[in-house]
Amino acid sequence: MHALNLQSNSLSLAERLADLAVDALIDEADLSPKPALVDRRGNGAHTDLHLGLMHASALALWPAFKEMAEAALAFGAVGLPLREALGRIGREGEQAMLATTAGVNTHRGAIWALGLLVAAAALEPQATGAGSVALRAARLALLEDRYAPRPLSHGAQVALRYGVRGAREEAQQGFPAVLQWGLPQLKRSRAQGHGEQNARLDALLAIMSRLADTCVLYRAGEQGLQAMQQGAQAVLDAGGSASLAGRRRLHELDLQLLTLNASPGGAADLLAASLLLDRIESADAFIQGAL
Length: 291
Ligand SMILES: CC(C)(COP(=O)(O)OP(=O)(O)OC[C@H]1O[C@@H](n2cnc3c(N)ncnc32)[C@H](O[C@H]2O[C@H](COP(=O)(O)OP(=O)(O)OP(=O)(O)O)[C@@H](O)[C@H]2O)[C@@H]1O)[C@@H](O)C(=O)NCCC(=O)NCCS
Ligand SMILES: Nc1ncnc2[nH]cnc12
Hints:
Elements: H1 13-30, H2 51-60, H3 62-75, H4 80-101, H5 108-123, H6 130-141, H7 154-162, H8 167-172, H9 176-191, H10 196-208, H11 214-237, H12 244-260, H13 265-281, H14 283-288
Helix pairs in contact: 1-2, 1-3, 1-5, 1-13, 2-4, 3-4, 3-5, 4-5, 5-6, 5-13, 7-11, 9-10, 9-13, 10-11, 10-13, 11-12
The chain binds ligand LTSJ6FE6 and adenine.
Adenine binds next to helix 1 and helix 13.
């Protein structure tokens, strides 16, 4: 059983969870070289994003993550009142993001995924194993928020056009991309001694190799999605980010996705979700405040 230690330092549990969520977003943004995504090298396939903006956006979301955790502590159980409170706080978080980025969507998918996970962790601080947190998050995601506007978002458009499941369904199913691909690959690559940065890159690639990323589909259609999935698998098959052959494939994938304008923003969000769950799970590190 994993447990969050409430007495670990002067921060409240909600504040600590918000710190962890922001750290996960910043670590995802900093990780390099990520194919066609914003990283330390540059803007990837994006003309309106850069690393400083990703950092500013992540920091601007801290109050929303804290409030989501506080709402979970206040309501104390999965149910419609908590779900609708999270929806309201999530929408306010989106406004804070857009105010910070002058209208650019940096982290919409991340607010959704990490917000649900932060709330789910706060609900039961004694049960913080990744599977247990993801299951509670899924139960929250399955509840219908009566106040949520349903715009024809990019995700909704491609879900209709290609019949794929997007960010909403990923959460409702308990984050399979994180639980089945991202986290296991992160742990496998660490265990093989590949080093933390390569392990995170491998986790991202494992997610990319399977995900129906609506961001890629919207920008580059099925050809883009196939290039992302097959290219990511090819890097892993060649030995992953820590091998020379894998590194060469990674470089090829970067070029190919840039040519297709195919940015795997959904996979990036789910890497951040994997990093968050990994940290929540490591109770020892939590206790020492050494995250
Ligand atoms: C339920 C929502 C997630 C809304 O979902 P929906 O699919 O309707 O909306 P989208 O606006 O398309 O946002 C979904 C974002 O999720 C990421 N994503 C994509 N595929 C997946 C997937 N298979 N699984 C998980 N996550 C996925 C992705 O986010 C990243 O991409 C963003 C950039 O996207 P986009 O704006 O399309 O970007 P560009 O192509 O660059 O646009 P242009 O420059 O061309 O204009 C980036 O932000 C990444 O984060 C998808 O974009 C949920 O958002 C919702 O209902 N919110 C309401 C509030 C609420 O209830 N909150 C609850 C709080 S817990
Ligand atoms: N690093 C990144 N680059 C572009 N879009 C993203 N969405 C989430 N993380 C991203």
